[in-house]
Automatic annotation (TrEMBL):
Residues 342-449 form the Pyridine nucleotide-disulphide oxidoreductase dimerisation domain. NAD(+) binds at G178, G179, G180, V181, I182, G183, I184, E185, G268. This is Dihydrolipoyl dehydrogenase. Its main location: cytoplasm. It comes from Marinisporobacter balticus. It holds the Pfam family Pyr_redox_dim. GO terms for biological process: 2-oxoglutarate metabolic process. The keyword Cytoplasm applies. The active site is at H439 (proton acceptor). PANTHER family: DIHYDROLIPOYL DEHYDROGENASE, DISULFIDE OXIDOREDUCTASE. It catalyses: N(6)-[(R)-dihydrolipoyl]-L-lysyl-[protein] + NAD(+) = N(6)-[(R)-lipoyl]-L-lysyl-[protein] + NADH + H(+).
Length: 461
């Protein structure tokens, strides 16, 4: 089989690359061993956000009296939750399949291995083998769960981010090992579903990629919701004792023992670099991922690598943007990846999002900066929603350019894009201050935070 571009892996990196390559006139073949949409659609972003919506509704129901609505009784129907999740995933995966057809991308289902610089050998899922030859190859094999190196972490019954999605019962108690985005999202979901949740975070703050000012507030808020968080702890061993799991961990104050019905291992992910013969073809990589240049090309001319497998910002939208960048470079459009302005979101209660520089980073880099914060408590729409916890924090440099935007509050994951646009377009304070924001909207909180940089915010005392 001959192709212009062979894409190895059909996740958000691979399928975007395939479509963009096809749009630009390439004959594209995509090799996928499981499901189109990869981790994101099948076992990551989408199923977790479906469950997040369940949790959101439950959190509203818990406070429903506040809205003047009284509901006597409700119960959680786990099979129905699972059915809804599966239907949404299926709808999206089927959609990708149709997009492949519409763009004339040939999809081959099987496990692909690099045979040489221009050939992928595929062990077909239906049996047999084929060689696919192509001028260019894009490696988009993604990442997998990294199991922590502590005794007992290999116990079969422990949950990973993939296994936990198919829960058939809500665990009475759940210990989450890992205070990163995936761990904290599951902690908030299962807290809302009624589990007693304990988080063990190695770093001193949860969600360490986000603005510390906000994550500290989030930790307080999660504790109020009943989630126990131990920070700065080092897991030591996991044992099964009397039908329960017990995690032993070291803290500054000594050893702690956390007992629960289920344990979720969520201490990180590692790139899928094994079993694809990178060594054989001479591609540079290490355990953090495949090495690429700004065009996302590896050291081997014509072979590109994108998404989680390069180990940088393991996010679906980054993988997708990588896909577009690699395909454009292959098709002669000069395209570079900018890793500086990447919105990052955590779907917690309240949501947290972040783009650009954090205050600590600005300090470390010796940047002269100013900050301003606007609390959602002063925003009419947030109050009407009954979700006024949190704030918008903005950072500008001495040229008045916006360099960082950090949001904790309702729809923070949607609101962050005005900040991303401001930073990527090097907008100044006045560019935003002179842009009318509709009323009553959550976006007004962003406008007010910006005005605060000039000490001209209207609803700030
Ligand atoms: P993947 O999506 O992992 O796709 C790789 C594909 O390659 C897979 O389909 C795999 O089957 C296939 N493959 C691997 N090896 C081979 C081979 N040898 N032959 C053929 N096929 C192969 N990101 C966000 O931006 N927002 C979120 O809300 C979010 N939530 C997440 C929640 C969870 C629980 C998890 C685990 C991840 C989440 N992520 C989220 C991260 C996101 O899913 C990944 O960053 C994204 O899927 C990476 O895309 P990718 O294309 O690089 O790899």
């Amino acid at each position: 089989m001959e192709s212009g571009i062979i894409v190895l892996g059909g996740g958000p990196g691979g399928y975007y690359a395939a479509i963009r390559g096809a749009q630009l006139g390439a004959k594209v073949t995509l090799v996928e061993k499981e499901e189109l949409g990869g981790t994101c659609l099948n076992w990551g972003c989408i199923p977790t956000k479906v469950l997040y919506r369940n949790a959101e509704i439950l959190n509203t129901l818990k406070n429903i009296d506040e809205y003047g609505i009284h509901i006597e009784n409700y119960h959680i129907d786990v099979p129905k939750i699972q059915e809804r999740k599966q239907n949404i995933v299926k709808q999206l995966v089927d959609g990708i399949s149709k997009l492949m057809e519409a763009n004339k991308v040939e999809v081959v289902y099987g496990v692909g291995v690099l045979k040489n610089k221009n050939t992928i050998l595929v062990n077909l899922n239906d049996g047999g083998q084929i060689d696919i030859k192509g001028k260019n190859i894009i490696i988009a094999t993604g990442s997998k769960v990294s199991i922590p190196a502590i005794p007992g972490a290999d116990l079969d019954e422990l949950l990973t981010s993939k296994k936990i999605l198919d829960f058939t019962e809500i665990p009475k108690s759940l210990t989450v090992i890992g205070g990163g985005v995936i761990g904290i999202e599951f902690a908030t979901i299962f807290n809302a579903l009624g589990s007693e949740v304990t988080v063990l975070s190695r770093s001193p703050n949860i969600l360490k990629r986000m603005e510390a000012d906000l994550t500290k507030r989030l930790a307080t808020s999660l504790k109020k919701k009943g989630i126990t968080i131990h920070r700065g702890v080092q897991g030591k061993k996991i044992k099964k004792e009397n039908n329960k799991f017990v995690v032993y961990a070291d803290t500054k104050k000594g050893e702690i023992r956390v007992e629960s019905e289920q344990v979720l291992l969520s201490s990180g992910r590692k790139p899928n670099i094994e079993g694809i013969n990178l060594e054989g073809v001479g591609i540079n990589f290490d355990k953090k991922g495949i090495k690429v240049n700004e065009q996302l090309e590896t050291n081997i001319n014509g072979i590109y690598a994108i998404g989680d497998v390069i180990g940088k910002n393991m996010l679906a939208h980054v993988a997708s943007h990588h896909g577009i960048t690699a395909a454009e470079n292959i098709m002669g459009i000069e395209s570079k990846m900018n890793h500086e302005v990447i919105p990052d979101c955590a779907f917690t209660f309240p949501e947290i999002s972040s783009v650009g520089i954090k205050e600590e980073e600005a300090k470390d880099k010796g940047i002269k900066y100013k900050t301003s914060k606007f609390l959602f408590g002063g925003n009419g729409k947030a109050l009407a929603l009954g979700e006024s916890e949190g704030m918008v924090k903005v950072i500008a440099n001495e040229k008045d350019e916006i360099i960082g935007v950090h949001i904790m509050g309702p729809h923070a994951s949607d609101l962050i894009h005005e900040g991303a646009l401001a930073i990527s377009s090097k907008m100044k304070i006045d560019d935003i201050a002179h842009t009318i924001h509709a009323h009553p909207t959550l976006s007004e909180a962003f406008a007010e935070a910006i005005l605060g940089l000039k000490e001209e915010a209207i609803h700030m005392i």
